[in-house]
Amino acid sequence: MISSNADHKASSSLALAQHRFSGGEQRFSLRRGKTGNRIFKKDTEKMERMPGEGELDHLERPSPLTEKERMMIQDSWSKVYENCDDVGVAILVRLFVNFPSSKQFFSQFKHIEEPEELARSTQLRKHAHRVMNALNTLVESLDNAEKVASVLQMVGKAHALRHKVEPVYFKILSGVILEVLGEEFPQVVTPEVAAAWTKVLATVCCGINAVYEEVGWSKLSTSTG
């Protein structure tokens, strides 16, 4: 959970989520082979672990980003976004392999188990592109609170009302994003930069969770459960 201790910076909160939800599980990375092609490498296998019920109930919004943090995020993202499609696919494959229950919301590829086959899925690649574009819009708009709120409203409502996605998956996805960026861009996503990313992803999770509450998610999930 994101810490409620006022003396703790929220910049470490999703790193904790990353450690708890992603660390030590099945890890699929993009590695360059001798031919220069990117391949998926499987390191370990463990069972999926899901956060306990109610872990999103008391999220606290982190303090606003500083100008330095905003610039670090935007500068690092410009380098990540050069590999938009590859990074997006790596993130989603890591998510679906480590947390197979997250595939239940995707009828086109929810029965695919092998990571290499997932990576080749046209529908997965399309969704990865949408995820990366949404992240790009958020990063480009970090100095525009209204734009950020508008994007979170759109994403939150669509996933709550149309796709019926449990909000906990946004927290899990944030941990996966941090993990993949740290692995694939270690010289760019330094510990200081990762702390800034953690802070902004915590803000995104809080914002989306607020949208879920606004649309009455608890009542919706109860009525459709």
UniProtKB/TrEMBL annotation:
Keywords: Heme, Iron, Metal-binding, Oxygen transport, Transport. GO terms for molecular function: heme binding; iron ion binding; oxygen binding; oxygen carrier activity; superoxide dismutase activity. SUPFAM superfamilies: Globin-like (SSF46458). Residues 64-213 form the Globin domain. Pfam families: Globin (PF00042). It catalyses: Fe(II)-heme b-[protein] + nitric oxide + O2 = Fe(III)-heme b-[protein] + nitrate; Fe(III)-heme b-[protein] + nitric oxide + H2O = Fe(II)-heme b-[protein] + nitrite + 2 H(+); H2O2 + AH2 = A + 2 H2O; 2 superoxide + 2 H(+) = H2O2 + O2. Its EC number is 1.15.1.1. Belongs to the globin family. PANTHER family: CYTOGLOBIN (PTHR46783), CYTOGLOBIN-1-RELATED (PTHR46783:SF1). This is superoxide dismutase. It comes from Channa striata (Snakehead murrel).
